Amino acid sequence: LHIAPHDIDKLLLPAYDYIVVGGGVAGLVVAHRLSEHPDVTVLVLEAGSLDSSPDIITVPGLVGHGIVPAYNWNLSTTRQEFLDNNTRYYDQGHVVGGGSILNGLLMTRGAKADYDAWQSLGNPGWSWHRMLHYFKKSERFAPIACREHVDPLHIHPHMPVHGTKGPLQVGYPNFFYNQSANFLQGIAELGVPILSDPNAGVSAGASVAPSSIMARNQSRADSRRAYLDHVLHRPNLHLASQQTATRVLMSDLATGGFPLISKRLKKAYAVEFRTSAESPQRNAFCNREVILAAGAILSPAILQVSGIGPASVLEELDVPIQVNLPGVGANFQDHAMVHAFYNYTESGLFSSRNLTGAVLQEVEEQYFTNRTGPWTHPLISTIAFPHLSHLTSMWPSLLSNITSSPESYLPLGPGRHPTLLKGYTHQLRQLKSLLSDSTVGAIEIMADSVGTLTISIQHPLSRGFVHALSSDLLANGSVARNIHLDPRYCSHPLDCDLILQGLRFNSRLIATEAMKKLQPRPESPWNITDENILNEAIRSQVVTEYHPSGTTSMMPLNMGGVVNTRLTVYGTANLRVVDAGIIPLLPAAHIQAAVYAIAERAAAMIKKDNPSPMASGIPGPPLGPGIVKGSGQ
Ligand SMILES: Cc1cc2nc3c(=O)[nH]c(=O)nc-3n(C[C@H](O)[C@H](O)[C@H](O)COP(=O)(O)OP(=O)(O)OC[C@H]3O[C@@H](n4cnc5c(N)ncnc54)[C@H](O)[C@@H]3O)c2cc1C
What we know:
Protein name: GMC oxidoreductase
Oligomer: single chain
Bound molecules: flavin-adenine dinucleotide
Number of helices: 18
InterPro entries: FAD/NAD-bd_sf (IPR036188), GMC_OxRdtase (IPR012132), GMC_OxRdtase_N (IPR000172), GMC_OxRtase_C (IPR007867)
Structural class: alpha/beta
Distance between the termini: 18 Å
Keywords: FAD, Flavoprotein, Signal
Active site: 547, 590
Binding site for FAD: 95
Largest sheet: 8 strands, mixed
């Protein structure tokens, strides 16, 4: 059942078994799976609306043509002091389906070693082997339909690692630009292997990656269409859209009459929400669990305003401390990215630049009539994840010092809590081992059809943070105003050094026989070899690859973790986080595949931990003073 804002008082139940905060990638997976049991009631609170299926969302060829403002949180970062001291826009999905409605459709998993590193960070059972089951569970993989591309583009998926029965369709476009083959051949000339399947456990190499597109109609596959639309008729699944959760209400378990669980644990019994800054506040009550899936930026902010976070941050917010948890909002990681442009000038070349006027009309018609042609192709499908050794023969020296003085790279204040330092120290050891591993990519190069070779680092050493700025996330009319987001890009200098190595690799790449045929003409400053100029250019042009993570990390408590291996927030009995924030260390990949898999696994755990469906309506603990009763009561 979809509950629009005007129906909220009429349709909201007195209580739900599960309340999922955020209907993005992770939230919709979990809501779908939990509501499979008809006796269990599930409410999803989503701040955004249902999209109206505009072409700009559904047509792969329109990826990169802009984002509907209403579907964007319109966040930005603080001034980036280790770059050029300017802020950066930070697009995030504010819409049912979250990031999967805006994203670039790339489906990559990273290397086996990336996930085995999660296990090594104190998370037994979270290895590649265990993740593989959930990668497959989420996926309905379709091999490429246009056989003529198979051999030239080396598209030979290893079917045993793919799922064919999951909800999310994953496949290939019906059209490729010829430049993809030049890129793969050029990369091979430089000794980087071509991977027939980038999702089989080895990421170091180049490939045509699959996309989250529906093979049959060649349109975007997202979490709404994969996990929600066809189950929204379930009477036990309620989606309340345009409702922003502003707080999770917590009580002491002991007062809730649950004597079997430790007294010290906190129990989430309701979620406070409202439609807009001006509208009345309501509570949704929960019998079993509150599941945060608001993404790696907003889930930690919700925890903080609910009293779970670093004590000094909560004091600043004037929020009573429920659980002093230093890791909430810390350990922020992202793939820092630079778009470098090498303009392909070969006169007969067909690229997305040709899609104007009559050609565009023809392409549109071709797409809507036959689901073929350039509009089936997303902005990017051809990518490479070179290993460090492909970038420089001096690579061991780049890594020689990365585990020394970890404290100097963490943010001052609560970000240097001893547990966070311990966690970061362990992470640096893992990062050194990952960057040395020949199966793991150090950077990514994304090739479009016109000559952009975008570089991003894949194993960032820099750590940023997210803090709420007001105890009311809707204060001053907009959540974006109440979020302090500091990625601290290149606060560890190796991150920008690796981007520089990537740019040098690009210069060699465009000089290969295969790439020379495209007649690349690098635009300034990418044609300049002077290191100082390039370093300055990097620092002015680093942007996000939209992979925020780590802010509610799954790690041991004494290593700055926020959730345990069952994704339950430390110090609480029934509050989980299931989104990209739990990723303790970014894989060398675009991360939606990992988020779908994490959420599938989270749902399986929640079901297992709550074996017998409880009748809805069992009251939670007594309401505390000053708490507004939900209008649907
Ligand atoms: C522009 C862009 C391009 C990307 N490209 C790719 C790509 O090509 N390949 C890839 O693998 N990944 C890509 N990603 C990343 C990928 O989409 C994300 O990693 C993924 O969406 C994260 O899932 P999530 O569930 O953690 O968060 P989200 O999908 O962001 O979901 C969070 C949801 O919670 C809602 N929410 C937040 N706060 C509240 C609140 N207080 N109350 C109620 N609801 C709330 C949000 O509106 C949102 O719907 C891209 C992301 C973006 C933004």
